[in-house]
């Protein structure tokens, strides 16, 4: 009996020692895990290609006081146990908002402006890792090529040009907002910042200034109205079936007359740029018209957006020309036709500011 009791006691001691050693290993593992995970790797796709991600380490539980998006060196993770514990308890206070780009310049401008506006409305930091066409055209500042938002939550729009209140009330985590985001309400409150962001790079601005200076020297005391005529792919059958409308020559006759009525006793020159210059020359017959020659899109954009007022047919390119010009704007009201697929994802009052003037063919 004594022998059995002896062996029973020895067994309990051995088991307890084993549990203690096991707990020790678990504690060491958790400490090691904590020290190696003070930062979390995240990534974002700057465009539709999944191969364009670039890595940046965002602080998960601590912040660099000089740059909250800066990578910390590997040596910074070699802290004492007490420091590791403090780091694991720290809470990051900043929330970030990013996006990824689709389409050409006008679409990208809507996406970027809406991202900035949504971020500012919710006390977030707007940031992108690639600017698409924007960085070749404008002096964008919210760019960090090392951003990596791999584990951020995606929130997408439900309609391309209808205001959605859910986007103005995002959950309190880092977010990637996606969609075309073509609604002026998302960013009008941040318009001063966005106008600064859409400052042209010097080479483009210099070319635009030269063209306008030449026009003004020949047309002294003239009001210059920029006219953008979008046709190109909009006249294709597939885009007509989607719901895109195309302004006819009669629209421009009405728009020119309306602009003249708004600027009585003024000498007006209509400066026309288009992706279909031949159609314009054949169909826009007005003695006050000057046609811009074929140029790259950025140059046309800079010239027209520097005019006093703007007339546009349709498309985001013309929309942003008018918004940046910030004068009187006349737009083609039927650029999205009723009872078409696009019509049900679009609201006129969310796409066009109410102080712009809409006309039909």
From TrEMBL:
Pathway: Protein modification; protein glycosylation. It is an enzyme of class 2 (transferase). Its EC number is 2.4.1.-. It is found in: Golgi apparatus, Golgi stack membrane. It is a single-pass type II membrane protein. Coiled coil: none annotated. Residues 56-85 are annotated as: Disordered. Keywords: Glycoprotein, Glycosyltransferase, Golgi apparatus, Signal-anchor, Transferase, Transmembrane. One of its GO terms (biological process) is carbohydrate metabolic process. Residues 73-85 have a biased composition (Low complexity). Residues 56-72 have a biased composition (Polar residues). This is L-Fucosyltransferase.
């Amino acid at each position: 009996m004594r022998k059995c009791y002896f062996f029973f006691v020895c067994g309990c001691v051995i088991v307890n020692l084993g549990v203690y050693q096991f707990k020790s290993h678990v504690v060491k593992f958790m400490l090691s895990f904590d020290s190696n995970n003070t930062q979390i790797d995240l990534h974002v796709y700057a465009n539709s290609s999944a191969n364009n991600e670039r890595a940046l380490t965002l602080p998960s539980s601590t912040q660099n006081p000089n740059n909250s998006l800066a990578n910390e060196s590997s040596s910074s993770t070699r802290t004492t146990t007490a420091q590791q514990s403090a780091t694991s308890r720290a809470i990051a206070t900043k929330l970030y908002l990013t996006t990824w780009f689709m389409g050409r310049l006008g679409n990208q401008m809507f996406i970027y402006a809406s991202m900035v506006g949504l971020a500012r409305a919710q006390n977030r930091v707007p940031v992108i890792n690639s600017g698409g066409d924007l960085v070749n055209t404008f002096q964008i500042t919210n760019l960090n090529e090392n951003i990596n938002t791999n584990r951020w939550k995606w929130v997408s729009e439900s309609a391309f040009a209808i205001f959605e209140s859910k986007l103005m009330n995002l959950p309190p985590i880092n977010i990637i907002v996606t969609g075309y985001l073509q609604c002026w309400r998302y960013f009008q409150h941040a318009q001063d910042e966005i106008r600064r962001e859409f400052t042209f790079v010097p080479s483009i601005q210099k070319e635009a200034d030269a063209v306008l200076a030449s026009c003004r020297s020949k047309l002294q005391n003239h009001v210059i109205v920029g006219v953008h005529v979008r046709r190109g792919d909009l006249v294709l059958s597939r885009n007509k079936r989607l719901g895109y409308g195309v302004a006819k020559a009669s629209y421009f006759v009405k728009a020119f007359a309306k602009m003249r009525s708004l600027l009585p006793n003024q000498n007006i020159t209509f400066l026309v740029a288009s992706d279909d210059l031949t159609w314009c020359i054949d169909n826009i017959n007005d003695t006050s018209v000057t046609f811009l020659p074929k140029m790259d899109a950025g140059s046309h954009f800079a010239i027209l957006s520097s005019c006093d007022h703007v007339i546009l047919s349709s498309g985001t390119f013309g929309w942003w020309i008018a918004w940046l010009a910030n004068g009187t704007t006349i737009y083609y009201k039927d650029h999205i036709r009723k009872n078409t697929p696009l019509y049900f994802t679009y609201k006129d009052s969310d796409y066009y500011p109410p102080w712009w003037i809409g006309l039909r063919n």
